[in-house]
Structures are given as structure tokens and as C-alpha cells.
Amino acid sequence: MQSVRYEEAPLITVTPPGPKSRELLAKQGMLETRATIYPKAFPFAIDSASGSTVRDVDGNLYIDWFSGVCVLNLGHNNPAVSEAVEGQMRKVWHTMEIPTEARIDFLERIHKILPGSLKGHARVLFTVTGGDACEAAISLAKHVTKKKTIIAFSGSYHGIHQGIVGATSSRHYLEYSGVLRSGVFHIPYPYSYRFPFPVEKKGDEAKVVLRYLEHLISDEHSGVDEPAGIIVEPIQGEGGYIVPPLDFLPGLREIADKYQIPLICDEVQCGFGRTGKFWGSEITGTTPDIVCISKAVGEGIPLSLIAYRSEFDESIPEGFHLGTYRGNPLALVAGSATIDYIQRTNLLERVTSAGKKILPEFERIGRESRNVGDVRGIGFMIGNEVVNSKEDKSPSKQLAVSFRKRMFENGLLMHTSGHYGNVLRFMAPLVISDELLQRGLSIYESAIKSVSS
Hints:
Blueprint: H1 19-31, H2 38-41, E1 46-50, E2 53-56, E3 61-64, H3 67-70, H4 79-89, H5 101-113, E4 122-127, H6 130-145, E5 149-153, H7 171-177, E6 184-187, H8 205-218, E7 227-232, H9 248-259, E8 263-266, E9 290-293, E10 304-309, H10 329-344, H11 347-368, E11 372-378, E12 381-386, H12 397-409, E13 412-413, E14 415-417, E15 423-426, H13 434-450
Parallel strand pairs: 3-13, 5-6, 5-7, 7-8, 8-9
Antiparallel strand pairs: 1-2, 2-3, 4-10, 9-10, 11-12, 12-15, 14-15
Helix pairs in contact: 4-10, 5-10, 8-9, 11-13, 12-13
């Protein structure tokens, strides 16, 4: 293959998918389940990647606004993470829960960056995936309160294990898992663009939700059992990058305190700097009782955990939540390197400033298009809601997929999400250069303007 510099991205020399990609995709189709989804969204085969760019096996270069769904916050093959993992590989790869220097180093680091009053007053329990972390968080809340009902929100995604899938709002995941939703009560998330109830003015959605939640808890005839916990994403991810009003999380905290209900913040997608803060809950200064952590903490090497109020640990029995690969040493050193990198650089400040610059660009493109009905976001979490027309606001997954395809063909990886699969989400690596941001914006704008309903 001809040598190509990653900084030249985007560079499409063979219309994707090229012949080598088609060959590997065909073999995958013969050998692997048809349930895979990402090869359909991005039909190519990857050769290598660096920073915020990806090279396919046919030599094409792409700008990455995908980040493996917010996993690669520090970019592909970050040297600091790579060096740490390579060093640990020469020591030990698997230890169960037996302590190593790698384990203690990570624990000391994560305790120092936990949100609010959890810092210095928490315990950590390692899990295997983000969904497993949310599963453990709910199990812990139920164990501590001796209650069974969980409050979750419309548009939520907390995983699809057979327990946690009940808290994930999408119906089709329940159909896939073959389980019934039980012990979970969903209420609306303050989704301003598609809020189901009338409000006096935009921004009042949180007040309506909070009043309804308190009614459900305080009225013993509401039909909802006393909750064991409230699980919430500070910013909804798979729901469509929905940023709630600033009074939402503090209001949840107030209700949780009033009725002694554990507040669980799922930071799997919005944690580790994606919003310009280490944690999404820090935007409003809200401290959860339990925080779920995964994705970017391990920079692509699977690592997940929950951190929770230390007093919750007093009654936990041995073997409370098990998993063979919990706290893998390779992932732990990757996690330590990630924390160190964020702390020793101005990455959070850069995400904040770059996000404030790029959000108005998305808003401008949205204003000039009849098919982008809403733009919202913070930091490097920006959602662009695609509609058939701004007048009727009807969601268009078909158009969103068309935009995604056009961008892919021109060397930009950007994925969808949302209640209707119609939200194009900006989730580039936090280390992406200003030049690649601008190149990506040009491709995005061209795609939005070129595809007509």
C-alpha cells in the first residue's frame, strides 16, 4: 500500500467500499452474525488509525467524528496510553481482584477526580462493561434501600444485559432480550424539542418533570412503588445528545435527598471530558450517590466501574457483583494514563473553547437547512436533529442515514442516534486538531446541503 500521511485526511482515492474492504466485509458476513450494525453504517474495513483519523485497507483516509461512540476521547493510538499498556504487558495481564501496583495506582487516581463530595468519600467496584456498571449500580441501590423499583427516563440507554435492559427505554431491545420490563418506571426526560407536555416557555420542561416525579413518589396512590433509585444520564447519549435545562440535575438531587433515594448518574458516555468537564454532572455541580463509569476511561481497552458513597459499602456481602475480567491490569494502566493525560494538559479547557466555537457553526448550518430542526449540545457532544421539514418537525431517519452516507463517501465518519434514529451526533476525539474540525465541518455542511427530501 502506498504510504499516506494521516494528517492528509480526508483522502478518498478509491470509492468506498474499495475492493479489499468488500472482500473483508463479505468474509465477515459469512463468518459472523448478521446482527452486526456498524459495518452497515460504515461499510469499510479498517487498516489502522491515528489520532482523529482512520485509514481503511484500500488506502482511504477518514476524519473520525465517531470515536467508537465516545470511547477514544484521547484519539486512536494515543502514545501515552500505548506506552503504559505495552509496559504492563511485560508484567502481568490478568490477576482477578488480587492487588497490583497498576490496580492501586488507578484506584488512587480515580478517587481524586470523582465528582463533588464523592471525592475522598467513596468506594469503587469494578465491572466489565458500561451496561454491567449500570446493572451493578441498580443492584447496589436495591440492596441499600431494600426496595425494588427504579425510576428511569424516556430516551435512556443504560445497556442491554437482561437486567439493565429494563431501564433502557427502547422497546426493541426488550424484544431482542426476551425479558419483560419490570420494576422500572420511565418518566419523560426534559427534551425541549419533543417534550410531550405543554410548557409556558422553553426551559420549563425540567420543572414539569420534577413536579411529576415528586408526585409519583409522595402520593401513595400514584401507582408507583417507593423507588430504590433514580438512574439518569446527565446528558442523554443514544437518546439524541439531549442537554437538559440547568435546573434538572440539581432538582433530581433535591428530590433524592428529600425522600432518601440514591441518585445514580450514568456517566458512561458523557464522562471523562466529553462535555469540557471531567463529569457531566459537574456542569451543574451535582453529586450523585452512585456514578457509572466506562468507555473513555480505558481508551478502547474494556474497563468499567461504579463509585459510590462509602457508607453504602457497609452491608455489601462478599461476591456482591462478579465478573472474571473486572479490573484487568492492561485496562487499569490505560485508565491511569488517560487520567494523567487529561490532568497534565489543557484538554478540558480546549474542549470547552472548541465546543463553543463549533456549536454556532452547526447552528448556522441548521438555520440554513430545511432539514435540520434542532441543534443542541455542549463541549464535544452536539446533536443535529434531522427532520422532513422544520414546519412539521417530523423525524427523518431516512434523511439522516443519507447524510451519513454522503459524509462517509467524502471521508467523514459521523454517526446517528436519537429516539427516531434521526440525530447526527458530533463526538470527535477530544484531541482533534482545529484543521480537521474545519475540514469535517465543510464535509458536513456539503452533505446537509446536497441531500434533498
